[in-house]
Amino acid sequence: MSLGKAIRHHGVVAAGIKLLKALLLIFLYYLVQTSVVPRLRVFGVMPNLLMVVIAIMTVSFGKQYAFITGAVIGIMLEAMAVSIPLFYVIIYPVLALLCAQVFADMSDVKREMRRIREAQRQSEAAAEIKAPYARRKLRFSIRRNSPYDKEPHLRILLNALMLAALYEGIMLIYVALGGVAVGFSHIQRALMATVYTGAACVTMFPARAFLGMYRRRRSRRRGDEEQQSISTDPELLRQLAVVPDDAPAEKPSRLKSLFRRPGASKTKDKGDQPEEENPGQQPREEQSEKEAEA
User: Fold this and answer.
1) Which of 15, 23, 73, 261 stands 20 to 30 A from 249 (CA)?
2) Span 3-130+144-227 CATH architecture
């Protein structure tokens, strides 16, 4: 097997293992939600672990896996509970994709655009410092322009809270459309369910360890440390930077002599040879001696 085929085979195997781990984790969360969580009710409220696993997949693997997770959960809920036809198949993937736009890792294009904005903002701030008498502009922006992603555990928590809040809000709207008067008790239960779901995000630590996210972080840290540890002695750099005064003579090459024009070689040879004195003109001393003898 060639090197390219081995790399492709290894990539396909790694992608298959990654998808298998994701499906196993989704199925495990579904089983816990349907069998264990109903016995952990607090004031008649239970957390939604399905939103937690969607948040974990969104932050760990990106938008594509967020949609896959939402679709798989919706299909399983639709197959088991048919109280609202096609409700779970639609609502879970839509909510997963909607929140993934905010909490998933940003793309490379978006990251570069934010870096450009940050550099422009820093240059403008430096220009304002150089001109202290200029009138300063008050700037207030809610939009986040940092090119770096936030801490993943914090994003999982915020993503799960947002998913749970949106889900509970949609359920309240559905209840209100069904003719039931929505009161303070319904809103209170929705808030308690959202907070309980946020508390259930503690399960993200073993889930991310099962997905192998902490090993990747360690390998990245080791790579950064190795890059930082590789350094060159400044004295060696100084010696390498010294340029010799006399450049070495060019070595004669047969190829150059073959492709050289004949006229150029003759002129070069003439220029190299010292100028000869004119044989027709004799020195003045010899001429004076001959005249004296005559």
Assistant:
1) 261
2) Orthogonal Bundle (1.10)
